[in-house]
Amino acid sequence: MELDKYFEKSREAVSSGGFGEAEERIEAVLTEVGAPWSREPEGDCWEVTSDHGNVLVGLTSDDSVLSIWALIHPFTGKPKKEADYLYELMCLNQQTRGSCYAITDINGQPWVMVVARMSPSGLNAEAFGIALADVIESLKAFESPGAA
After folding, report:
1. What is the distance between the alpha carbons of residues 45 and 29, in angstroms, rounded to a whole number?
2. Is residue 147 part of a domain?
3. Which of 10, 17, 20, 32 has the fewest Cβ atoms nearer than 10 Å?
């Protein structure tokens, strides 16, 4: 899996949080794919710094779902008035390879995001790398021309 093209400008040393077996496997896969990542000592997710924005990786509280996501921008419009924009997001979903655009709520504020989800059971670098690359590729659709 060739992910280096997403981290040319942002590669930094990694810092491990060192928690349980699932967390250790995620950190091993992050390292194996060559992603520059960090995690706060008591953090519940990993941050991957890409040339196209930060991507977060985290587990559900029961460790049953691994999510890879990036916030794109606050959604400030009214859904009925933003139907064309929401339609375009849904059309963009057809071009992804495993991630999708979605809206999430953060402290009462809706945000447009891109997310990929997978089972952490049997997690491997190839599947993770495809999902991570797709989240980053999807994030690129929102870059200003000439960025990165």
Report:
1. 14
2. no
3. 20
- Parent domain of 44: 4-140
Supply the Cα-derived Rg of the chain in whole angstroms: 16
Asked if 117 and 71 touch (Cβ cutoff 8 Å), the reply is no
| Alpha-carbon span 99 to 141, nearest angstrom | 13
- How many Å apart are CA 73 and CA 144, to the nearest integer? 13
145 found inside a domain = no
| Sequence-separated (6 or more) residues with CB below 8 Å from residue 62 | none
Predicted confidence at residue 13, as pLDDT, reads: 42
Torsion over CA: 76, 53, 113, 138 (sign): positive
Return the half-sphere exposure (C-beta side, CA atoms, 13 A cut-off) of residue 27: 17
CATH of residue 46's domain is: 3.30.1460.10
